[in-house]
C-alpha cells in the first residue's frame, strides 16, 4: 500500500471497473492508497465497462469493444459475461494496426496486450480488473485494490447514491475519499465532513502529447498514451492534475 499521505487512514477511491480507461482513471489510481472495485454496481449500457476509444485510422477516434452476453437490465457488472466465442481480440488488434506507422511503442504495447488478453477470463469485471492490474504494472505505479462485492459495505442499504463512497470510506477507515471530477456537483460534502472524512476530486489536465497528427485527440484509452510514451513519461502525465477539495478550494498536487 502507498504511504497514507501523512494521514491516519488511507485515501480511498471507489470506481466501477472500466475497460482500458483513459489516463484520468489511472491518475486516480496513482493518487489513492486503496482502490475499491465497484463490481456489484448495476451494469449501465453505453458506458465504459465494455468499450473505450482509440485513434481512427484516418481521422478522429473510434471505439474498441468487448462483446457481452445479453442480460437483464438489473444485472450487476460482476455477473455480466463476455461472448468469448467471438473473435473480439482479433478485431481489436486489427483496429490498432494503423498505429504501427505512427507510434514508437507499437510493438511493445501490442505484445503487452496479447499477453494480457491471453488469460482465460469469462466475465467483463474480471477482465477489466485483470487489465487494470497489468497496465499499472506496465506503467510502474502501485495498485492496491479490493472488491466491493467482497466487502461488508456490499450488504448495506443507502438512501442516496453518493453515500456508497461515504459508507465504503467509513468501513475501511479512510481519512479521505477521492473521486473523478464528474462527481463534484453530485456529492454532498457535508455528509463527509460530518463523518470526519475529507472529500476531494481529481481533475486531469489531459495535456497534449505527440500523436503524430495535426489534430490532437484527448481522453483516449490508456492504450493510446502507451503507444506514444514510455512508462516514465506516462507517470509524469499521471501527476499533471488538479485536486479539488469538496466544492470550496483547489490546489495543485504537483
Mean pLDDT: 93
Distance between the termini: 21 Å
Uncertain segments:
1-6, 248-254
What's the total helix number? Answer: 8
Strand arrangement in the largest pleated sheet = 5-2-1-6-7-8-9
Characterization of the model:
The protein is an alpha/beta fold. The chain is built from eight helices and nine strands. The chain has a seven-stranded mixed β-sheet with strand order 5-2-1-6-7-8-9. It has a two-stranded antiparallel ribbon with strand order 3-4. α6 links the parallel β6 (176-179) and β7 (198-204). Mean pLDDT is 93; it is low at 1-6 and 248-254.
Descriptive terms for the model:
254 residues; alpha/beta; 7-stranded mixed sheet; two-stranded antiparallel sheet; 8 helices; disordered C terminus
Task: Furnish the topology, listing elements before pairings.
Layout: E1 11-15, H1 23-30, E2 34-37, E3 51-55, E4 61-65, H2 88-96, H3 106-117, H4 124-139, E5 145-147, H5 163-171, E6 176-179, H6 189-194, E7 198-204, H7 222-228, H8 231-238, E8 241-245, E9 249-252
Parallel strand pairs: 1-2, 1-6, 2-5, 6-7
Antiparallel strand pairs: 3-4, 7-8, 8-9
Amino acid at each position: 500500500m502507498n504511504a497514507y499521505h501523512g494521514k491516519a487512514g488511507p485515501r480511498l477511491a471507489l470506481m466501477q471497473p472500466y475497460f482500458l480507461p483513459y489516463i484520468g482513471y489511472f491518475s486516480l489510481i496513482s493518487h489513492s492508497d486503496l482502490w475499491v472495485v465497484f463490481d456489484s454496481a448495476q451494469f449501465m449500457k453505453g458506458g465504459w465497462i465494455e468499450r473505450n476509444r482509440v485513434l481512427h485510422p484516418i481521422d478522429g477516434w473510434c471505439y474498441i469493444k468487448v462483446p457481452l452476453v445479453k442480460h437483464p437490465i438489473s444485472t450487476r457488472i460482476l455477473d455480466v459475461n463476455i461472448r468469448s466465442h467471438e473473435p473480439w481480440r482479433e478485431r481489436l488488434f486489427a483496429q490498432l494496426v494503423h498505429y504501427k506507422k505512427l507510434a514508437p511503442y507499437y510493438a511493445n504495447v501490442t505484445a503487452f496486450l496479447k499477453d494480457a488478453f491471453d488469460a482465460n477470463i469469462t466475465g467483463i469485471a474480471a477482465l477489466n480488473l485483470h487489465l487494470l492490474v497489468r497496465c499499472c504494472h506496465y506503467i510502474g505505479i502501485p495498485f492496491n485494490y479490493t472488491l466491493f462485492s467482497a466487502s461488508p459495505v456490499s450488504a448495506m442499504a443507502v438512501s442516496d447514491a453518493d453515500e456508497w463512497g461515504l459508507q465504503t470510506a467509513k468501513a475501511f477507515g479512510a481519512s479521505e475519499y477521492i473521486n473523478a471530477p464528474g462527481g463534484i456537483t453530485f456529492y454532498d460534502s457535508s455528509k463527509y465532513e460530518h463523518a470526519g472524512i475529507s472529500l476531494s476530486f481529481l481533475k486531469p489536465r489531459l495535456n497534449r502529447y505527440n500523436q503524430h497528427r495535426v489534430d490532437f485527440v484527448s481522453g483516449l484509452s490508456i492504450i493510446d498514451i502507451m503507444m506514444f510514451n514510455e512508462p516514465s513519461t506516462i507517470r509524469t502525465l499521471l501527476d499533471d492534475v488538479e485536486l479539488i477539495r469538496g466544492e470550496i478550494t483547489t490546489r495543485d498536487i504537483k
